[in-house]
Amino acid sequence: xxxxxxxxxxxxxxxxxxxxxxxxxxxxxxxxxxxxxxxxxxxxxxxxxxxxxxxxxxxxxxxxxxxxxxxxxxxxxxxxxxxxxxxxxxxxxxxxxxxxxxxxxxxxxxxxxxxxxxxxxxxxxxxxxxxxxxxxxxxxxxxxxxxxxxxxxxxxxxxxxxxxxxxxxxxxxxxxxxxxxxxxxxxxxxxxxxxxxxxxxxxxxxxxxxxxxxxxxxxxxxxxxxxxxxxxxxxxxxxxxxxxxxxxxxxxxxxxxxxxxxxxxxxxxxxxxxxxxxxxxxxxxxxxxxxxxxxxxxxxxxxxxxxxxxxxxxxxxxxxxxxxxxxxxxxxxxxxxxxxxxxxxxxxxxxxxxxxxxxxxxxxxxxxxxxxxxxxxxxxxxxxxxxxxxxxxxxxxxxxxxxxxxxxxxxxxxxxxxxxxxxxxxxxxxxxxxxxxxxxxxxxxxxxxxxxxxxxxxxxxxxxxxxxxxxxxxxxxxxxxxxxxxxxxxxxxxxxxxxxxxxxxxxxxxxxxxxxxxxxxxxxxxxxxxxxxxxxxxxxxxxxxxxxxxxxxxxxxxxxxxxxxxxxxxxxxxxxxxxxxxxxxxxxxxxxxxxxxxxxxxxxxxxxxxxxxxxxxxxxxxxxxxxxxxxxxxxxxxxxxxxxxxxxxxxxxxxxxxxxxxxxxxxxxxxxxxxxxxxxxxxxxxxxxxxxxxxxxxxxxx
Length: 702
Ligand code: 3H9
Hints:
The chain is of the alpha/beta class. The chain contains 30 helices and 20 strands. Helix 13 (308-319) packs across helix 14 (331-350) and helix 19 (484-501) runs antiparallel to helix 25. The chain starts with a strand and ends with a helix. Bound molecules: (S)-3-Hydroxyhexanoyl-CoA. (S)-3-Hydroxyhexanoyl-CoA (3H9) binds at residues 25-26, 28, 61, 64-69, 80, 101, 103-105, 108, 127-128, 131, 135-137, 139, 278, 281.
């Protein structure tokens, strides 16, 4: 074996050179990897003993892409394209040995090889669009030549990895093998023995010929793929570049791809998306977690309550292969809950997203009972009953008596005091909040609420459980509404005020949609049900004059066909309602609020700046330990567009100074002291500091 450099080695056995990368954790194609790969292929090509070449990796995966941490910094030669061209130009056959995930640059280098084999559980894809860029090392030029521009544009704009079996059917890989390196060696020997031609992907014309003559099918596929990405730069650039694959010669297509890549990689949208990528991984890290704390192993779970939330949480466990039992108060509720779960799975089967056999397997993992003794034999209990503190405390008292020592006791509360819930047990250290978002089986965010009593083991177990369920766990402190709902409450207050002051639901929703949210706040309220907030306001003795009046009139949103909007004949499309305008006018008059035209700019600032202000307070209080955690909460729980980076990232783009000035103006305008800029925000404005710099290091130093 020859060690080419610290991360690449080369072994020649029976005339086959095996080039292997070993660069943990994911064999990203950073500078040392690129340099070693280039040197290795040059050596293999020059060695007369070598007849064929295999490219593989050690560790947990084939190359997972370019090294994202190098983006935005000056490129150190050789670039990835140069490396790929060296493999492609080899006069000796080169076979890529794929396992784990061949993503982005990882797939691009494999496409530069003459052949590709993969293990059955491997996944391949070009997910660059999710980082706000496009494949920049030939992916947009080579993939269309393998699978056709129509399929390529769909795959590249979606950025989703595909399983080896599908990649085989599409011709992206040539064979599925039991063991990647051995399989690739056998493959290359066969190529040599049979004298198979070495066709470079760049020279293949068959799959792009039709699009050249008639691009209509491509344009239709491009339109369908980008439908939900208006205003987002990367998907449009992906389309443009894939189009080049059949309108330009290969080298010109490559040059154009490079230019598009360079433009996107320095843009704010890509910076935002990379920020979310790294923040998501950072959020699960608990700064004060002592080394050596081990999470408990979760083999069995119990969910208290089989309503929409409880059922969704039970599905998460079943989807992860963990047996789960739902505890309900009556057989009737239990049957209803299980039926709802079955129906939800059945919809996935109908849509082709889940095989019937997989559904049966998952559903079989979900049991139901009215016998609380089941709690004695479980590793985790998640309570998901009605949001009422007294009820939750009573349940936790009961759990305390029944659960074995060490069982994690979690409450799926969205607002309530987790300290108080913990105190209703004799083991408050074992209690945490686990705030799932609706629908729980779909939404990625999981707020893990640590109470002042939560033990480190409990927090570690909750984080591990979240990951097991495929969620993005963010550890937050205990306060009213935690991170997400506490900030949302600020937006809701402004929504109500704006209605009184003269804006319509459609004016405000349009502004929020334009920013990139999938739904505006009023349409969202109608979907969730306006009665939920109404009940909470009644319990707390607060008012929202327009929305309360809508609820009093039985207008709860989509479920009653009317809310802020009208929904005719079961339609989900919101239609503006002049009655709501009239109602707002009456309420404004009664409250002595003068109505006026409200500009788009003002709506925008009042939707987002009060939330940013609240984020600053959340950081001041240590409820979130990093500004980036807040961004993750909003990106994965509330639909904040990832290309806008989250509230704190966005605030840094605008600058604290402008936000402080606007908030001071709105505090004066509305008379709401809650809109006055937070201390931290003012400090950032004065110092020119950024939210992005607020994190663990600063806290530790403070
Ligand atoms: C690209 O290829 C551009 C080219 O077209 C053109 C170039 C010219 N770079 O996710 P995990 C880190 S763009 C640097 O927890 P998993 C990650 O931050 C790239 N670091 O593991 C984490 O660090 P830490 C296209 C990376 O097993 C650690 O590795 N490729 C990269 O759950 C473990 O990550 C992609 O977009 C990277 N490329 O999932 C793929 N990838 O431990 C991005 C990961 O300090 N990666 N890290 O927190 C992934 O999707 C997942 O990491 C993967 C593994 C599925 C591979």
